[in-house]
Every structure is written in C-alpha cells, then in structure tokens.
Write a structure and sequence with these properties.
The protein is mainly alpha-helical. Helix 15 runs antiparallel to helix 16.
Length: 451
C-alpha cells in the first residue's frame, strides 16, 4: 500500500513538472510560429495571393538551412541537463559560454549563406517565375536576422535545462506583439509587401533574442552568462556536437525531403503553394505541442539518467508519450472539424481554402504516428543516444519521401499523392523507432545490473 501510494504521489508530481515545462514551451513555439502566420496572413490579405505564395514557399528553405544548428541547441539542452544531474557546476558554466559562441557563429554563417545563395536555392526547388522575385526579397531580409534566431534557440535551450520555459514565453509574447504591429505598419501603411513582412519578423527576432541574453546575464547561479568569460571549450563543444549534429542532420534531412516535396507541390501551381502555406501553420502548432513534450522528455530523462535513476526515466517517457498523444489528438480533431474557418484566416479565396482543408485532413488524421517518433527520439537523446534516432528518421522518413516524389508522384501526379507521403513515412519510422527504443532501454538496464 505504501509503495502504491508513493507511486501515485510521484506520478502526480512528475505529471505536474512535465506540464509546467511543456505548456510554456509549446506556447513559446506556437508564438514563434505566429511570426510566420502573421507574415502569411498579412501578405495574403493585404498584398495578394502571389505574396502569400512567395512567403509560404520559403518555409522549407528556411528550415533546411537552420535545422542543423537548431539541432546543436538540442545538444546544449542534453549536455547541460546531464551536467545538472551530475552536479558538475564548472562544466555547466563552460557549456553556457560555449553555446552562446556557437549560436553567434552559426547565425552569422547562416546569414551569409542565405544572402548569397537565395536565388539559386529557390530555383532548385522549382519556385514559379511569378513569385520567385518576391520570395527572394523576403528570404534575404529574413536571413539577415539569423544571428538573432540562433541566439534565441540556444539561450532558451540553456534556460530549459533548469525547467525555465516561462521567460522564453514572455520574450516571445512581447516580440509577437511587435511583429504583428510592424507587419501591419510596413505592409498597409508603407506598402512594402513581402519586404515589410520580412523586416517585421527580423526586428521581432532581435527583441526576443535580446531579452533572453539579458535574462542570462542577470541570472544567478550556474547558468549565468558573463560576456568576459565567452570562450569555446573544445571538450564541451565535442559533447554538444555528438548529440546535436545527429539531431541537426536529422532535421536537415527532414527539411531536404520536405524541399523535394515542396518542389513537387510547386509544379502543381501557386494555388497549391498558397494552400500549403496556410495549412503548415496549423500543422506546426500541432507539432509544437508534442515537440514540447519531447523536449521535456529530453531534459528530464537527461537529468535523471545523469543521476543514475533509470526507473524514473522510463516513467517520464511513458507520461510524455501518453499526454502528448491525448492533447494533440484533441487539437487535430478541432482543426479538422473547423478547417474552413481556420483556412479563412489566411485567404478569402474559396479554392485555396478547399485545398487547405484537404491537406489538413491528410496530415493531421494520423499525427499520432509522428508523435511516437518524436517522443521516443527525444527519450533516446536524453540517454545520450542521438545517432540511432537520426539514422532511423533519415532512412524511413527523409529518403522514403524523396523516393516517393520521384517514383510514385510522377505516376499519379495529384495533390493527394504528395500528401500521402507524410503518414506513410511516419508509419515506417514509428515501427523502427519503437524497436530501437526497446533495445536501447534493455541494454541500459543490463549495463546498470552489471555495474
């Protein structure tokens, strides 16, 4: 009876911690997506369908270029969490300062890539001629702000390691309000079209990044950022890279496969591109919900694994998986049920609205498969095994999608054919990741028994 009561108390405390971690994080990510949503809504309503398509066509390109370095921020999250579990306070300080330098360096690198190779990239993904000039103008301005995007991602990863997801949320609320105001001012008042949309986003990103850097400078304890102490620690850098690079490569391969999918969608015309741009905003909101649980899983598993508490790790993983499936399934049902209303936020065109509804039904109906992949991948990264989930996702999602685009789609060149690739790839990846996770847990438990 005592053990049962203790188990129930622990489960309640665990759930509370996970929810207090995941809800602000999910809200922060959703607000970040609102930057793009505000861009697309303002472009669609006040600058026309071509501007809407031009902004939307950039989404896979942006994700392709930044995902490697966002993956490195996951490495920061895992390493600092493990060091926290081990109570290695000197190591935490080294990790904080190494991560900030890494954020700045990667942001500057991405800005240069985005500025000089934008046109080439847009042509490679078959961006239609009627929107390519607008898309290029948007993308160049957006990438000037890449250092701010990276600083925000790495700084929020550092704060997450101590369970602080509230201050990143505060920063994004303020930045999000600024973004909406500037969007309307630049596009409606100054008639700047996509350039105004991109400039508003860049300014907003600088605000959110600046606030988090300020929080870290004023932080008390091991996560405090001291500008004078900024230097790379090679050992910490290698540890971050060992976790972060596989996660980043996985993200890049995801985006590369989505760029291939986008190139196929581009061939179907600007209306398909516009509907995709509208639908992706809701798909991202759903993704951010279960991704927040995956980040909670990474952080808490990392901390408890560092402290040698394997049984707690298993309970954390189960709780994150169950609650992410419950919450996101409910949200998917609401979005599908009110698809016409949600699509109407971005456009008044009935044809584009109908196309948007079709995509939402295909993508969101089987989202629970994607949830399984994400949560178990996060669990394995928390254990320090980042390469295995990356390999699985590259093979069963990324490569499979590319094969589909170049084999199945040419035989049946329809919108629905492209949409089917998402649930099909999730199914194969989910089966593989479940098997890999079970083997990993078994090996960890056997190692614990030997020790």
């Amino acid at each position: 009876m005592i053990n049962t009561a203790g188990h129930k108390i622990f489960s309640k405390i665990l759930l509370k911690k996970i929810l207090f971690f995941a809800i602000p994080l999910a809200t922060s990510s959703i607000l970040q997506q609102f930057f793009n949503a505000a861009d697309i809504a303002v472009a669609g309503h006040f600058a026309g369908a071509e501007a809407l398509a031009a902004v939307g066509a950039n989404t896979p390109v942006i994700n392709l270029l930044i995902n490697l370095f966002v993956g490195l921020s996951i490495g920061t999250n895992v390493i600092v969490a493990i060091l926290t579990g081990k109570k290695d306070y000197e190591g935490i300080q080294k990790a904080v300062h190494t991560s900030i330098i890494l954020a700045l360096s990667s942001g500057i690198f991405l800005a240069l890539i985005g500025i000089f190779f934008t046109n080439t990239i847009l042509k490679l993904i078959c961006t239609p001629d009627n929107i390519i000039d607008l898309a290029e103008k948007y993308l160049k301005i957006y990438f000037i702000g890449m250092p701010f995007v990276m600083l925000y991602n790495f700084s929020s990863a550092i704060l997450r390691c101590k369970g602080d997801t509230e201050r990143p949320l505060i920063a994004l609320v303020i930045a999000g309000i600024i973004n909406i105001i500037l969007n309307l001012f630049f596009v409606i008042n100054l008639k700047m079209s996509v350039q105004g949309v991109a400039l508003a986003t860049t300014i907003s990103n600088s605000v959110s990044a600046g606030m988090l850097i300020y929080f870290l400078i004023k932080e008390k304890g091991n996560l405090k950022l001291n500008i004078k102490n900024l230097r790379l620690n090679l050992k910490i850098l290698c540890q971050i890279a060992a976790i972060g690079i596989p996660a980043g490569v996985q993200g890049m391969m995801f985006s590369l496969s989505n760029v291939c999918v986008q190139s196929a969608l581009n061939k179907l015309g600007s209306s398909i591109i516009a509907s995709t741009a509208a639908a992706i905003n809701y798909e991202c909101i759903v993704y951010f919900i279960f991704s927040a649980f995956a980040q909670a899983c990474v952080t808490f598993v990392g901390q408890n694994y560092g402290a040698g508490k394997i049984d707690r790790c298993i309970k954390i993983i189960k709780s994150c998986l169950i609650w992410s499936i419950i919450t996101t399934t409910m949200l998917c049902f609401v979005i599908i049920a009110f698809g016409k209303t949600f699509a109407g936020v971005f456009t008044n065109d009935d044809y584009i609205i109908n196309l948007t509804i079709i995509r939402l039904k295909y993508i969101l109906s089987l989202e629970f498969l994607n949830i399984t992949v994400e949560i178990l991948s996060g669990a394995m990264r928390g254990f320090g095994h980042s390469l295995i989930p990356a390999f699985i996702c590259v093979i069963f999602i990324c490569i499979l999608r590319v094969i589909w685009v170049y084999t199945v789609f040419p035989m049946y060149p329809k919108y629905e054919t492209i949409l089917l690739v998402y649930p099909v790839s999730w199914l194969f990846a989910a089966i593989a990741i479940i098997v890999a996770y079970l083997i990993t847990v078994k090996n960890i438990k056997n190692k614990e028994l030997i020790n």
